[in-house]
Structure formats: C-alpha cells, structure tokens
Design a protein that fits this description.
- This protein has 330 residues and is of the alpha/beta class.
- It is 50% helix and 11% strand.
- The protein contains 14 helices and ten strands.
- The strands form three sheets. The protein has a six-stranded mixed sheet, with helices on both faces. It has a two-stranded antiparallel sheet with strand order 1-2.
- Helix 1 packs across helix 9, helix 7 crosses helix 10 and helix 7 crosses helix 11.
- The radius of gyration is 20 Å and the shape is globular.
- Bound molecules: adenosine monophosphate and zinc ion.
- Adenosine monophosphate binds next to helix 2 and strand 4.
C-alpha cells in the first residue's frame, strides 16, 4: 500500500479501491466519494437544490457519512433519529447522532419508539409474529415516512450502500421475490401518502463509506446492532464478500448491472389500491396499516370490530409490507 500512488494526483495513496484498480490520497478519495454521490443523485434525479431532505441517521458510518456529504454539497438536509430502545447500543447511537448535529449546527428530529408507540424493538421481537429485524424494519419505514410528511420534507434519504443493496438483491433473487426485486431501486417517487425515498450511497461499498467517515473524522458507532447476529442479510453479505475477495467488482456488477439491464424487466404494472389506515391515517392496502397491525399484536390490543378477521390473516404475511410502505410502483 505504501508504494501505491494516488490515481488522480500521484501523491502517496491512503485508500485502495480494488474494484476500480485504483488508489487515492485523502483529498482525492473524498473527491471520488463525493463524485459517486453527485453521479447517483444526478442519474436518478434524486433531489433538487431546493428540496428539503430528511436524512435518516442511525449513528452508523453510512448514514452519518451521507448527512456529511449532503451538507457538504450544499443541500438542505436535516436529520432524523429513531430511538429503537436496544439498550446501550441505542443510547450510544443517539449520543453520536446528537453530537454530529451539534457540531454541524443542523436540525435533528428525534422519535422514540417506546415513548411514541408504546413498545421497543427487543420487546417487539419477543411478542409479535414477526422476527425482530422485520418489525424493526417495518417501524423504521413507518416512522421515516410519517416524520417526513408531518414535518414537510420532500424526500427521505437513507444510508443504504452497495453492500446492503447487493445483499438484499441476492436474497430477493434466491427466492425470486419478483415484486420486491421490482421495487429495489435507488429512488422511489412520492405518491399518495408516501414521501420520495432515495439512497444516494448505492454506488459506494461499505469499506468506502467507512474509509470516508474515518478520514472525515466522523465519530460513529462501529458495533453492529446486537440483535442482528445470524440475520440472513448478514449471511448474504458474507457470501457476496467471499465472491468479491476472489473477483473484485462482483458486487458492483451484480447490483449496478441489475439497475441498468434487469430492473426494467421486473417493472410491474400492479396498481394496488391505497386507502388511509383507519387507526393512523397512513396509506395502506388493507383496513389497517401493517405497522398498526404489528403494534396492536405486540401490545395485545384489538384493532377494529368483527370485520377485522381478514386483516388479522393478512397481518401474518410479510408480503404486504413493501406494497403498503413503498406504494405500488417503483
Ligand atoms: P439498516 O436497516 O439498519 O441497515 O439501516 C438502513 C438505513 O436506515 C441507515 O443507513 C439509516 O439511513 C437508516 N436507519 C437505520 N436505523 C436508524 C435509526 N435508528 N434512526 C434513523 N435512521 C436509521
Ligand atoms: Zn396505521
């Protein structure tokens, strides 16, 4: 590594990007990362200069790097932190996000799952019919959308990186979940009741966002969520990393070529009919939204009257979630 030179300026390199067969010095690496984000935003027309962006920040490297990048690029980007109640892990995450917001003097919206909705993620995992990760994901999508709409943001940005997207695509492909595959896109346009959602880091690998956060001196939570051990997403990431180690570029090939060449083949025409959830008013394909149903189940409450029966059955199906939460069309 010591002998490598920066591809851009020929100074000694500090970061190697194997899949591009390139290395960069600190400044040029930051330039490279920024260029990838600018390209992602432009390619999918993710955000305009006047859009108000709500960045969902977990306290991990990706979302804090994203917030840093968007602010640096001059966007109007505020943060949203959702307290999931996962013990020490969540309290440290909250501290890190608050410190970042304080340093940059930017607005941070905080939502506490237990305070607002009466349950935390560890309890939800034990009580409901969904896995811990499923109910956590459901809660995040629900709260992100609600917060964006309540506070008048045009778009929600998340820190999903290339590794996340490649692993998700691998999982969806192994099961040929064609509807999920069709919706796995770096931008999901706004529609009735749903704010636009964007993933500006989809071109950057996890190592790259980690290197960026480190070089920028961003303090972030390094530990994984303690509840995630054995999670299938992690196993798919491991599998992709094994392929990547012998054939650098596999991950990017898999996901970026999907976007360019395969995604159009999966685009569906299904126009699921959305109505307002009778409990909370958020859009849903059923009488009550998936979040309200999960919440009722966790808290041991009944939702609605006797006509609730079909809804309870639908509640057991994870299949309804993405349609409800992302809307029908990608
Ligand atoms: P994950 O689902 O943990 O892989 O996180 C995906 C993205 O969701 C992150 O990059 C963040 O943008 C966002 N996110 C995850 N957890 C939180 C949280 N507790 N509060 C706000 N945003 C979060
Ligand atoms: Zn609801």
């Amino acid at each position: 590594m010591n002998r490598m030179k920066c591809r851009r300026c020929k100074a000694p390199a500090v970061v190697e990007v194997r899949r591009h067969n390139a290395a960069f010095c600190r400044d040029c690496f930051e330039h490279y990362v920024r260029a990838q984000v600018v390209r992602a935003i432009a390619h999918y027309d993710m955000v305009g200069p006047d859009d108000r962006i709500l960045v969902a920040v977990s306290g991990g490297k990706d979302s804090l790097a994203l917030w840093d990048l968007l602010l640096d690029l001059g966007y109007r980007a505020d943060g949203l932190y959702l307290g999931l109640g996962i013990g020490e892990y969540s309290s440290r995450s909250g501290d890190v996000v608050r410190a970042f917001a304080g340093e940059r003097d930017t607005r941070l919206i905080e939502v506490d799952l237990a305070g607002e909705y009466g349950f935390d993620v560890p309890t939800a995992g034990k009580k409901g019919s969904r896995s811990t990760c499923a109910v956590c994901g459901l809660s995040k999508r629900y709260v992100f959308n609600k917060a964006a709409r309540d506070h008048g943001y045009d778009v929600i940005a998340t820190g999903h990186n290339l590794d996340d997207e490649a692993a998700t695509l691998l999982g969806n492909t192994l099961r040929w979940q064609t509807e999920y595959i069709a919706r796995q896109f770096p931008v999901l346009p706004a529609e009735e009741g749903f704010a636009r959602k964007v993933k500006p880091l989809y071109r950057l690998s996890e190592l790259e966002t980690a290197a960026y956060a480190f070089l920028r001196g961003i303090d972030y939570v390094v530990e994984e969520c303690p509840l995630v051990a054995g999670n299938t997403q992690l196993r798919y990431k491991d599998a992709m990393n094994q392929l990547e180690s012998t054939s650098p570029g596999t991950k990017a090939q898999f996901f970026l070529s999907y976007l360019d060449r395969a995604a159009p083949l999966f685009a569906t025409q299904d126009d699921a009919h959305l109505t307002a959830c009778e409990r909370c008013g958020q859009p849903t394909t059923a009488r009550f939204c998936a979040f309200c149903r999960a919440r009722a189940q966790i808290l041991g409450e009944r939702l609605g009257g006797p006509s609730n029966e079909p809804v309870v059955i639908a509640d057991l199906s994870e299949e309804v979630m993405p349609v409800e939460l992302y809307g029908a069309n990608p």
